[in-house]
Amino acid sequence: MSRIRSLPPRRSAALIAAFLALATAPAGAETWIEGDLAVLQALDKITARISTIEAPVGEISSFDQLLILPRACRKRPPEDTPESAAFLEIDELRPDEGGARVFTGWMFASSPALSALEDPVYDLRLVDCKKAEKSASSNSE
Prior knowledge:
Mean pLDDT: 80
Strand content: 35-45%
Shape: globular
Helix content: 10-25%
Number of strands: 8
Order of helices and strands: HEEEEEEEEH
Distance between the termini: 74 Å
Number of helices: 2
């Protein structure tokens, strides 16, 4: 009888996420809508301050000591199961060390614990991906 070997928690979580994405997607539902803004909710655990951040894709946004760079933000069409996903690079500014990368990877709105920022001071989770609204002045010109 063969023995089943257990995977490290992070690797097994990634495999479970990939399996669930394939298993729960309806046939032919491979489309994602590209978004311009990653809507994030940030928590400073020390002060209990909660902020909503609209971080443009390709631009650095900040929350206290965190620098957040969304590389991609996508969501499912309205007729599919709701899901938003963003590929984020997050650095933390540290007084004596400069910046240190604390997170790189995909975050999913429906499963915040699956791929989360693990930090003793900050929690950050993806809420949604959306298109940037065009200003009224650009429409009237």
